[in-house]
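Observation: inputs received (chain + S-adenosylmethionine).
Thought: call the complex predictor directly.
Action: predict_structure
Action Input:
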Amino acid sequence: MKSTYNLRERINHKCIKKCNPEKRKETTNNDICKVTKSELDRLPIRCVGNWAYQKIYRLNQYFGIFSNAMKNKWRGLNYIELCSGPGRCILRKTGEEIDGTSLSILRHPSFNFIKKAIFIDKDETIIKILNKRIKNLSINNAYGVIGNYNDIDILENIFSDLEKDFLNLIFIDPTDCSVPFETIKFIKSYFKYVDFVMNFPYGTDLIRNLHGAIQNITWPSRVKYLKFLGSNDFFERKEVKNLAVLPNKQQLVLEFFIEYIKNLKSIGLKYCESEQVKNYYMLLFASGHSKGLELWKKSQSINPDEQREIVFDD
Ligand SMILES: C[S@@+](CC[C@H](N)C(=O)[O-])C[C@H]1O[C@@H](n2cnc3c(N)ncnc32)[C@H](O)[C@@H]1O
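Observation:
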């Protein structure tokens, strides 16, 4: 089956466009625009950079291929999104609004193959907005719920609504490197079968702060990075300290990334691969099974910049 992916793009006429980080302190609250609402459904929207489209596209590509390939091989499939946002976003450069990751998955032609979808965000207002959008779609096997990636007990309670012997796909989309490795470890061990797609936001976070966090034990984000990485001795290694004083930060960030992949492999996520999204982040795929990786590679073969049409295998 061939299908063009539709994010219900439209120009938002009230967007003041190109707000810089300083301006966004006035015009947004937790990245939700205070100036305009969606012209599609009159609900609040999230202000994002243009590269958000690449993330949505790549996630949807994988979702389509994964769900089609797995739908008859398992008793059921679940989709979980941690850091869901409100469902619709606005590209600050152009003022164009589009469906965010959560709504794009719910409207994906292959969402029919999903038994249950749960969307988690720590912000109560965001979850209320997302739940209104889910209601507008008349979907009854999906809901948003308040949860925090720093609180494993809450996550466990949320996950208890999902059947344990289903195959789970989890997408984790934080704005910085603050999802503790313990949380990833917990998710992997809680679900018997789970594949991860994760945003690894190095360009907005690590590049600016990692060298400082290694050189200075009182650096504000040091503890956050240590918890995220899951290796206590990384910051003490001689070769890492040597990289931290070099003017070019890329190599240091690369070492950190390699260490993160090593840690994922150590908890059974042996098959990892990443896709660069501009200079801001990596979309990281991690699975315990080679089939997952095979599907990921297949799904990422079309570049979002060159091709806005998605081909779904039937
Ligand atoms: C990058 S946005 C998500 C965007 C969304 N996935 C999309 O593409 O449309 C990150 C979201 O993470 C949420 N968040 C931040 N810290 C969190 C935490 N500790 N636990 C859960 N969600 C969190 C924020 O409220 C925000 O909505």
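Thought: report the result.
Final Answer: The first helix runs from residue 21 to 27. The first strand starts at residue 2 and ends at 3.
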